[in-house]
Design goal:
This protein has about 500 residues and is mostly helical. The chain has 23 helices and 2 strands. One of its GO terms (molecular function) is carbohydrate:proton symporter activity.
């Protein structure tokens, strides 16, 4: 393996800065949770005292629809303009959308602003992990990609506390305009700073710019020493893989449905879908509503409880950053899903057993009231916190790590784009159905997501191979074995295919 000693300073700086895109993503996701419950915002939207479940779902969902479109559009941009220029473009789009949200004067403008911002967020969520994966040494690739999840959680936490603070101190439009406007600041920092970041060495190699590829690798690995043996070895590995793919690989979207790449596409999409069906965004988007159901009295109290939830989410991401490259992706996903499923099921069972479902006229929906049963209330809140901690330490970061590292260079941008689009598509679905589920089956919502988590555990055990410690160029070997991944966990990698073998595979229709 490549020794990364002496190279981590440059790598960490570049990847941390690029991960500001995750902060924009997290903040914009979290800010709507508090804004949706602010009376000045509700009155500005419809002149009423509450938003219907459909209106709430649309305000959150239009961002996600934009993200879906943005993640698909990001693929051709990442391939032609480069990864870093695509980050710049996505940031500009996000700034425009955030500005429209900040200046909103009605329902129509807020949904337009969130849709435009969503296009930018969708691009960032696809390109940032892709960019980091192509810069990172194999030994710490998971850790560096996980920086995106860490900055997402910091953004969520910041949004919760900013929303709680403005709601406590303002009773006019400033209560929601300030939280919405703050998100422009990190986007401007990213827009200006990304121009000074290096190009992806693998993108440079794919364009035949091998001298620049070596120069970037030397900067990231050996303080600019182009003769360093470890840097040269990685450069040769990248160059050989690029030349092999140019000779035999299909670079169009058709290539995603050939041979082992098809398997990777399916698994990448499943990771992103499963990340949504953990139920995490039912907590993040509708946290104040959920905490009120769990017995936290008052709007401000529920917002503060959500803020604590955001702090826990951030802190629990740190163990994932430290251990994802030691424990591996499979174990973390399985243990995390078991922990989340247990917490969700227990929360739902206690709510169902101790709570009373009744109509809340102020919210115009059915809610679970736990009444004076403080023990049940505290238990449910603790379960929500444990669920969030389980997600932050597992599916939060790994959900972005796994899809970003599994595709060959020839279709990496396309594959990452499609898997990210799947994330946003099902994020949109969840945002639309959760208000309806909370209103109709109330505590059954938690039972549903708990069962989903246990199903995910089984699927990961059976089908998902381990990728830790493998270079991006070794993924063909990792996914070239049996589809029954649990049989291949400790199996050694097969030797890499030669050019003649790859040509033979094409003739047989396997690649």
């Amino acid at each position: 393996m490549l020794n990364t000693v002496g190279a981590t300073k440059q790598v960490y700086f570049v990847c941390l800065f690029a991960a500001i895109g995750g902060f924009c993503f997290g903040y914009d996701t979290g800010v709507v949770s508090s804004v949706l419950n602010m009376k000045p915002f509700i009155f500005a939207m419809n002149g009423d005292t509450s938003l219907s479940p459909l209106e709430q779902g649309t305000i959150t969902g239009l961002l996600l629809a934009g993200c879906f479109v943005g993640s698909l559009l990001a693929s051709p941009c990442a391939e032609t303009l480069s990864r870093k220029r695509s980050i710049f473009l996505s940031s500009i789009i996000f700034i425009i959308g955030a500005a429209v949200q900040t200046g909103t004067n009605g329902y129509a403008s807020i949904v337009v602003g969130r849709a435009v911002a969503g296009v930018g967020i969708g691009g960032l969520s696809m390109i940032v992990p892709l960019y980091i994966s192509e810069l990172a040494p194999r030994e710490i690739r998971g850790r560096l990609i996980a920086f995106q999840q860490l900055t997402i959680t910091i953004g969520l936490m910041t949004a919760f506390w900013v929303g709680a603070g403005t709601q406590m101190h303002y009773t006019n439009d400033a209560s929601y305009r300030i939280p919405l406007g703050i998100q422009i600041v990190p986007a401007i920092v990213l827009t200006l700073g990304v121009l000074y970041l290096p190009f992806s060495p693998r993108w440079l190699a794919s364009k035949g710019r091998y001298d620049e590829c070596l120069e970037v690798l030397a900067y990231l690995r050996s303080h600019g020493d182009k003769t360093d043996p470890r840097t040269v070895a990685e450069y040769e590995e990248i160059k050989n893989e690029i030349e092999l793919e140019k000779a035999v690989a299909i670079t169009s979207y058709v290539g995603l449905f050939k041979g082992s790449v098809r398997r990777r596409l399916v698994l990448g999409i499943l990771v992103q879908i499963f990340q949504q069906f953990t139920g995490i965004n039912s907590i993040m988007y509708y946290a104040p509503t959920i905490f009120r159901q769990a017995g936290v009295d008052g709007v401000s109290a529920s917002l503060i409880a959500s803020g604590v939830n955001g702090v826990l989410n951030m802190l629990a991401t740190v163990p994932a950053i430290l251990f994802v490259d030691r424990l591996g992706r499979r174990k973390i996903m399985m243990f995390g899903a078991i922990a989340m499923g247990t917490a969700m099921l227990l929360c739902g069972i206690v709510m169902g057993a101790c709570g009373k479902v009744s109509w809340d006229e102020s919210q115009k929906t059915n809610v679970v009231f736990l009444g004076d049963n403080k023990s049940a209330s505290y238990f449910c809140i603790v379960m929500v916190y444990l669920f969030v901690a389980g997600f932050a330490a597992s599916w939060g970061p790994v959900g972005w790590i796994y899809p970003a590292e599994i595709y060959p260079m020839s279709v990496r941008a396309k594959g990452t784009s499609i898997t990210t689009a799947a994330n946003w598509l099902f994020n949109f679905v969840i945002s639309e159905i959760v208000p309806v589920m909370l209103a109709s089956i109330t505590w059954g919502t938690y039972i549903f997501f708990g069962c989903c988590c246990f199903f995910m555990t089984i699927v990961v055990f059976i089908f998902f191979p381990e990728t830790k410690g493998r270079s991006l160029e070794e993924m063909d070997q990792v996914f070239g074995g049996s589809v029954w991944a649990f049989r291949e966990v400790n199996a050694p990698l097969a030797p890499p295919a030669t050019l003649d073998q790859e040509k033979g595979s094409i003739e047989k229709g396997d690649f």
